[in-house]
Amino acid sequence: MSPFRPTRAVLAAAVALALSAPFFPSLSYAATQPAAAVPAASDATARRALLQLADQYYDANARFEPINATENGDSRFDDQLGMSIAPAQRARQFKLYRQFSQRLQKIPRERLNHTDRISYDILAYELHGLLAMEPFPEHLLPITQMDSVPVTLANYAGGEGSQPLGTVKEYAAYLQRISQLPAWIDQAIANMRVGMRSGVTQPKALMVSALPQFQQLLSDSAESNIFYTPIKKLPAGFSAADQQRLTAAYRKAVGERILPALKRLASFIETEYLPACRSSTGLGALPNGAAWYQARIANATTTTLTPAEIHAIGLKEVARIQAQFAILGPQLGYDGPAAGLPVWVAAQSKFYPFKTEDEVQAVYRKLNAVLDTKLPQMFTLLPKAPLDLRLEPELSRATASDHYTPPAGDGSRPGVFWSVVNDPAKYGSTGMTTLFLHEGKPGHHFHIALNQELNLPKFRKFGGNNAFTEGWALYAETLGKEMGLFDDPAQYFGHLNDELLRATRLVVDTGMHAQGWSREQSIAYMHDTLGYDVTAKTETERYMAWPAQALGYKIGSLKIVELRERAAKALGSKFSLPAFHAIVLGDGTLPLALLEEKVDRWIVSQQ
């Protein structure tokens, strides 16, 4: 099971944090200046200029990527689809980012207080990263099996996704948005044809996995198409005139424009794109691929680590965790070699006790209730937004992993932990506790929901970086041991096994994208190390589709663990775990360099 499938908003934020810069002036300055050098209050003019720029930056991104805004609970652009994959629009984006960067440099950072300097540093970091991504033609790869606009919009059709469908206005907004889908599809096809001519295509295996998704979007009639679903769920409170008008409009849009465009896309992928897709696996095989991958590594980890260094960390972590298996195996009744424990567990029927989806959900609901009694002992800073537990929609179950989606910023939608149950009989029980700690409480929900509730500029409230986001969630899993949730050896195995997955990711991701590993080599390594079968294929193809995204988990987690150990050693009896957690989470998502500087300053203040 793979934690946290990033939303389009999170992916866009990830691209924004594309390059970590060890000599980047603002980050370097922030990390080296003593606290006394930071003014207690910001200069009013400087602060006003910074906050105005930050708001304009967020609004510009919301207009460029309106689906991201929708997923943030910002409904202003729910009737827009966006066309950021169009070359001309992409050029306008980079031009605007250059202008933002120039304006930011004119704001005197030394006149800002500590809180505003964090916003300054993060904004500078994001703009630097955005502009650094300009040479890499990501717009030529608009579709993967993990993420695409048509599937995202289709998942909204039932009214249970990020885009609400409850009022006449909301029905009209969704209709307006999906009516723009044909233009997006035609631009995506044009981009992929450019990629075919320039040698920038997806690996063939990914499109083999993606094609069935687009074929599922097809139908024999408008009325049987998924994009017609809102009409089948028309609220009884709509007037007869509104019902008739909307029904006619949806039928016309779906039948005359959307369905033909979906057929064009599915046909293009099957007959033209798939035959032209590359046989290679990693990003390094593309033109300028090594630099492209290094940029994505910097984005995902907010470090300057190289692929070789991360590969070595992964191998070391795999060995460490397998040493723990040697101790745990006998407690489960296993007496074979440590590396074989996951395979043995996977073959034990007692660890697959479920017959229905409801039985799976019942375990998560019980765990949620237990955590409500334990977490207040570790946290004083808690989100107000509730956490809901739901099953993944059928359309995306085949390729999805259990994941979390954030609450709406306006409070209209809770945070959601989505469990992906394709076959209850094959849903393993051993990893459920650690998974929920990661995706739900106190992992993504405590960080991302709280991030939206802090008094932060919108670009920080809804942005982020993968190393902090996934690093925190993976660190949160370790708290299960302190809460007694891993006293059951089977659940502790699940924790170690999921940690082994994150370590394995460091090996296979860098192996495929930097060391020439094939897809088959990655699947074999994951199968041998983890005992996975079908999941090894799904995970491998995920890393192929999102190069470096999965590296942030372990790198970020290791940094948070390091900072906790440093604080506990320095403060001794004065160390407070709830206070440490509040320090880590209290300013929202930070690049790791800024997080380390913040924790070090807190240690000094406590001494």
Automatic annotation (TrEMBL):
Q: Which UniProt keywords apply?
A: Signal
Q: Which segment of the chain is annotated as a signal peptide?
A: 1-30
Q: What top-level branch of life does the organism fall under?
A: Bacteria
One Pfam family, please name it. DUF885
Name of the protein in question: DUF885 family protein
The taxonomy runs: Bacteria, Pseudomonadati, Pseudomonadota, Betaproteobacteria, Burkholderiales
